[in-house]
Design a protein that fits this description.
Elements: H1 7-11, E1 15-19, H2 22-32, E2 39-43, H3 53-60, H4 68-96, H5 103-111, E3 119-123, H6 126-134, E4 147-153, H7 162-168, H8 170-175, H9 193-196, E5 201-204, E6 212-215, E7 224-227, H10 234-238, E8 241-246, E9 272-277, H11 281-290, H12 295-298, H13 302-310
Parallel strand pairs: 1-9
Antiparallel strand pairs: 2-4, 3-8, 4-9, 5-8, 6-7
Helix pairs in contact: 4-5, 6-11
């Protein structure tokens, strides 16, 4: 996979800043913590371009043709396989929680179990992003490999929202709305990958306890219902996570966040990139300890919850 060869090269694709001292890091985290509307991502090597796992898998396989149509077919087939594998166990699991096994929900599930998806993890919490900057971080090296990267999108208003896409299709959804639940998915479901891939780059929101409310047009009786995102995995809830989907095969995410001549892809303001010296590992750990952010809090397991339920009682 392509990587950046230097901090200078990378700087032409991002609003780039270097964090060299403990004071710089403390000041940065205090500032980011005040940015309530921003989203963040941490990566443990500054040389990596912002390819998602599906792009990495597809582009690294010599038996795959490098073409957009085959890439989309690969993702769609993976999602459908997930629904029926092991005697449709995933569907039964979703059903038991009264969750619909729509393509967006399946991709969210697969993302956190190491399957290649077109999703990139982001978080509402900058300290969670800092944790992932130093999670499995390699030893300091030279130039760009001497840094980890914390990314920040300060405003998400201009990024297409999956919520907006669903709102535009409320009438289709309302037709399949029962008194208690959506009767879906169905063949023309706008929540299927073959439909929402056309958005190219879009944001799938974080978990919200009450879900997200939608109301159809009066011609469909103005029905209102709630839809839930990213509730199918403990980790993403614990990590205050959300996704940015990139349905394109070739372009890493940062290519959508800059101005380049003769490009036909959509453009958004540059992503901020804070390249943090790997030598600041201990300083980062002290900041994370104050926030009680660690592997246990970000990767909760069913066994851990069960153990905590009783171990302090006896």
């Amino acid at each position: 996979m392509e990587t950046y060869q230097s901090i200078t090269e990378k700087g032409s694709f991002f609003d780039s800043h270097e964090i060299e001292t403990s004071q710089d890091l403390s000041k940065l985290m205090a500032t980011l913590n005040e940015q309530m509307e921003s989203i963040f991502r941490g990566v443990n090597n500054a040389e990596y371009k912002m390819y998602n796992s599906a792009q990495r898998e597809f582009l690294s396989r010599s038996n795959f043709s490098i073409n957009q149509q085959d890439y989309e077919a690969f993702i769609d087939k993976m999602v459908q396989n997930a629904k029926i594998s092991m005697n449709s166990l995933l569907k039964k699991h979703f059903d038991s929680h009264r969750n619909l096994i729509t393509d967006d929900a399946v991709l969210s599930f697969l993302q956190h179990y190491k399957a290649p998806t077109p999703l990139l993890d982001w978080t509402k919490n900058p300290h969670v992003a800092l944790f992932f900057c130093f999670y499995f971080c390699s030893s300091p090296d030279k130039d760009i490999n001497n840094y980890v990267s914390l990314y920040c999108i300060e405003t998400i208003e201009k990024i297409p929202k999956y919520l907006d896409f669903l709102n535009q299709n409320m009438n289709a959804l309302a037709i399949h709305w029962d008194i208690k639940d959506l009767i879906g998915p169905w063949e023309e479901d706008p929540r299927s990958f073959k439909y929402f891939k056309n958005y190219e780059v879009f944001l799938i929101p974080e978990y919200r306890e009450s879900g997200y409310s939608f109301t159809s047009k009066p011609s469909n009786n103005g029905k209102t219902f709630s839809y839930y995102f990213n509730q199918n995995n403990l980790n993403i809830i614990a990590q205050e996570g959300l996704f940015i989907a990139n349905s394109r095969l070739i372009e890493p995410l940062e290519h959508f966040f800059q101005s380049r001549d003769n490009d036909k892809i959509q453009k958004f303001p540059k992503i901020k990139c804070f390249n943090i010296k790997k030598s600041l590992f201990k300083d980062a750990m002290r900041l994370l300890e104050k926030q009680k952010i660690n592997k246990k809090t970000l990767f909760p397991t069913e066994k851990q919850i069960a153990k905590m339920a009783w171990q302090n009682i006896l």
